[in-house]
Design goal:
By secondary structure, this protein is of the alpha/beta class. It contains 19 helices and 14 strands. The longest helix has 22 residues. The relative contact order is 0.12. Pfam families: Glyco_trans_4_5, Glycos_transf_1.
């Protein structure tokens, strides 16, 4: 039986991500652990903190394992005290696929963990659940834990989160850059050693690829979204598709976009009108950062060029409607950045920060251009925006090269094969430790 342990928050941001997970995830017919191997395992326990794109991966893994005969239990922590439609729909989608759903707090969660053949902790903060719930039983569970880590932010490197890391069967991380960072940071800051660590690059879902490869669907989506935004078909649309937060760099992108408009005016370049779109907005949250973004747009008088779009359950319409994706995550960048490979599937070139997993996805000068993170990246990004806008053939060629790269290494069956190898190895270790 595969048990999924998820923490669900009551904030709007948490709700949206959970809904997104339920829409994207679905049954998979791809290579994975054999039915015989997985039926031989009684339980696998997976834990997920539902605060980022990680829930999509967790649900896909759950349904993959259900598809080969594993029993699955989703253990959810911090359930909202009041009913929420997205939580209800998510849990019932699980139940419809044969995934059991139980609370992370209580004896049933402890019993399930102890009986599991494999425990998958997903995200760094999942470590707090070990002591909080398992308590005296932690030592019995650690030898069969695979810890799936997606974070690169410094505040995750706290003993209360990761003190048990050296004793688990293995860690799975989305990029080589992030894996190396975790290895060095845990040693230098906490004096602990990472367990056997496996790097697993992610892959696009079959559902997304079907839309990306359907020219009629893309054309219809493009026309619909552009009509909604008031953008003409010949206009150029640059987009960031991330939850609005300082770490994702929307503020620096807006500065770059404004600077690119100034460059075009100064050089008197003849080209279609340019627009910027930020998918991931949520003014209901009334965050100081988003207010700053909107104030900047008004101050620079570019309201007719910049479009804020609320958080959405489906990114495909926006990928179909834009011309260039901007991945502007700051500091150490994205652990991987699945939106990047999703954009490349739509034959979009990518302008990304030279940080984190983006450097393992984007081939600089071939599938897009990289620029420095931080304020020093504002002008290079502005210049790259102008180059993308003025060199149509290069932009289209980069998009095609990106699509080819996705087909070579970033599809769902690539990811499932990589994960299958990790699961088999960790299960072998778990059995030998038992």
């Amino acid at each position: 039986m595969l048990a999924l342990l998820s923490t669900t928050q009551t904030t709007r941001r948490r709700e949206w991500v959970m809904a997104l997970a339920s829409v994207r995830a679905g049954p998979r017919k791809v290579p994975g652990p054999s039915s015989a191997e997985m039926r031989a395992r009684k339980r696998v326990l997976t834990r997920k903190h539902l605060s980022t794109g990680g829930p999509l991966l967790l649900m896909e893994l759950a349904f993959l394992l259900r598809g080969v005969g594993a029993q699955v239990v989703w253990i959810t922590n911090q359930k909202p005290t009041e009913p929420y439609d997205v939580v209800y729909n998510l849990e019932h989608k699980m139940l419809d696929r044969g995934v059991q759903v139980i609370s992370a707090k209580g004896q049933k969660a402890i019993d399930t963990s102890l009986k599991a053949d494999l425990v998958i902790l997903n995200t760094a903060v999942a470590g707090k659940w070990l002591d909080a719930v398992l308590k005296d039983n932690v030592a019995r569970v650690l030898p069969k834990v695979l810890w799936w880590i997606h974070e690169m932010r410094g505040h995750y490197f706290k003993a209360e989160y990761v003190k048990h890391l050296p004793f688990v069967a293995g860690a799975m991380i989305d990029s080589h850059t992030t894996a190396e960072y975790w290895k060095n940071r845990t040693r230098e800051c906490l004096g602990i050693k990472m367990p056997e660590t496996y790097v697993v690059h992610l892959g696009n879902s079959q559902e997304l690829m079907e839309v990306a490869e359907n020219s009629v669907a893309k054309r219809v989506l493009r026309e619909h979204v552009r009509e909604f935004l008031g953008v003409r078909n010949e206009d150029l649309l640059f987009a960031i598709i991330n939850s609005v937060s300082r770490g994702k760099g929307q503020d620096l992108f807006l500065r770059s976009f404004h600077e690119s408009l100034q460059l075009i005016q100064e050089k008197k370049l003849q080209m279609p009108s340019m627009h910027a779109i930020m998918v991931g907005s949520d003014m209901n949250a009334q965050t100081k950062f988003e207010t700053e973004l909107r104030n900047f747009v008004e101050e620079k008088k570019i309201q007719d060029r910049v479009h804020f779009v609320n958080k959405t359950l489906n990114v495909a319409p926006y990928l179909a409607s834009i011309d260039v994706l901007v991945q502007n995550s700051q500091a150490r960048g994205e652990c991987f950045g699945r939106i990047t490979i999703e954009a490349m599937a739509f034959q979009l070139p990518v302008l990304g920060t030279a940080a984190g997993g983006t450097m393992e996805i984007v081939v600089n000068g071939t599938t897009g251009w990289l620029h420095p993170a931080g304020k020093e990246g504002v002008t290079p990004l502005a210049e790259n925006i102008v180059k993308m806008a003025t060199h149509v053939e290069r932009r289209l060629t980069m998009g095609k090269k990106g699509y080819e790269r996705v087909k070579e290494r970033f599809l769902e069956h690539h990811m499932s094969h990589r994960i299958a190898l990790v699961l088999k190895e960790v299960l072998r270790k778990s059995n030998s430790n038992s």
